[in-house]
Write a structure and sequence with these properties.
alpha/beta; Urease, subunit C, domain 1; TIM Barrel; 7-stranded parallel β-sheet; 6-stranded mixed β-sheet; 22% helix; globular; binds zinc ion
Length: 384
């Protein structure tokens, strides 16, 4: 697949970790015409217009962040995806409900079309998304028919439905109705539902049983005493155990209020590792404590999640969760060249949860290069 004039980019000397191909080995990654052209033994790559030196570094599929807020300039919390992608190895961001059906066209034309990374969306069951949050609760803005129709009309961008199952959105007397409506919209459109859990109503015993196989619970390690997914004795709650048994997925959704070291550790000790690692980056979390994918991934590494599993939960698994694993989340030859070059650093690194509790990790992941569609969108100075 490489022309006689050579490749466009070669990522040389790194350790490739690609869970989709069960690969964890030294390989040079050859990129031509925006696609992965070859994975060669070290030193065997053809000449290239640009060589990125990845000696001592990890080369993985471009990271996929399943929970972000990137509808920039719409609502007060959305952030700029382009700068975040370039510095974090993240090539796909899924906006989690910032847009609803009534304002989705703006997301397509003004944000996704101009992004230098891949932006997808989970459509909020509220047709106005989070634009007036938290002043406007769900109330009359919930429209399952309009939501399902909008999902079906935009299969290139919309990968699921999002519902905020917490008091701030549903109001004191509206309990679990929005979750049921979101469930109906998702099933009608044939896509997964992502449920944000938070302060009741609805309680997690009302909302989580509504979820089906392949649906996602985001904020799975949140720490509030009411609504956390561990019981007082530190074991996973019955409603979570039952959900896992029927194939419901756990998404981190770190954010500014949803990652508690104690809850995360208790759940992980019982084998409740996240299916998908995501940041919930927005204006209130991007400058800490969530920061970006490498920082959030480092927190799971610190809890003892094996490196390959952390990479899997940040590449292949989120791709599978949204049904895009035939397109993204792997370095298979012929795929679009979305690549992250990461450094696994050793030292003493403070990592803070959303309750201002800091633990010191002995290793940390940091992004060195981001390649999106074969284009190097980072410029950290490494390589040539
Ligand atoms: Zn969020």
């Amino acid at each position: 697949m490489v022309s006689s004039t050579g490749a466009d980019v070669v990522i040389a000397g790194g350790t490739v970790i690609d869970p989709a191909q069960e690969l964890h080995t030294a390989r040079d990654v050859v990129i031509a015409a925006g696609k992965i052209a070859a994975l060669t033994p070290p030193g065997a790559a053809p000449s290239a217009a640009r060589v990125l030196d990845a000696h001592g570094l990890l080369v993985t599929p471009g990271l996929i962040d399943l929970h972000t807020h990137v509808y920039l300039h719409v609502g007060r919390d959305n952030i700029d995806a382009n700068s975040l992608a370039a510095r974090s190895g993240t090539t796909t961001m899924v906006d989690a409900g910032s847009a609803g059906a009534a304002i989705f066209d703006g997301f397509r034309h003004y944000v996704a079309a101009r992004a230098r990374c891949r932006l997808l969306a989970l459509l909020n069951i509220s047709v106005i998304g989070t634009v007036a949050s938290p002043m406007a609760g769900y109330g009359r803005f919930v429209d399952p028919t309009f939501t399902a129709e909008t999902v079906e009309a935009n299969p290139d961008l919309i990968v699921g439905v999002k519902v905020l199952g917490s008091r701030i959105r549903v109001g004191e007397d509206n309990t679990d109705q929005p979750v049921w409506h979101a469930h109906a919209a998702a099933r009608a459109a044939g896509v997964p539902l992502m449920l944000h859990i938070g302060d009741p109503p609805p309680t997690i015993t009302q909302s989580i049983p509504i979820l089906d196989r392949g649906d996602l619970i985001t904020h799975c390690y949140k720490g509030e005493l009411v609504g956390r997914l561990v019981d007082r004795d530190g074991t996973p709650t019955a409603v979570l155990r039952e959900a896992r048994d029927r194939g419901v997925l756990m998404d981190v959704g770190h954010g500014a209020g949803s990652y508690h070291w104690g809850v995360a550790r208790q759940l992980c000790e019982h084998g409740y590792w996240p299916d998908t690692i995501s940041t919930d980056v927005h204006a209130g979390s991007i400058n800490g404590p969530a920061y970006d994918m490498p920082t959030t991934m480092s927190k799971l590494l610190h809890l003892g999640m094996p490196l390959d599993a952390v990479i899997r939960a940040s590449t292949l698994r989120p791709a599978q969760a949204i049904g895009w694993d035939d397109r993204i989340g792997s370095l298979e030859v012929g795929r679009t060249a979305d690549v992250a070059v990461l450094e696994l650093q050793s030292g003493a690194f403070p990592l803070t949860d959303t309750f201002r509790q800091t633990e010191t990790a002995s290793s940390r992941l940091a992004a060195r290069h981001t390649i999106f569609g074969g284009e190097v969108i980072s410029d950290s100075g490494a390589g040539s």
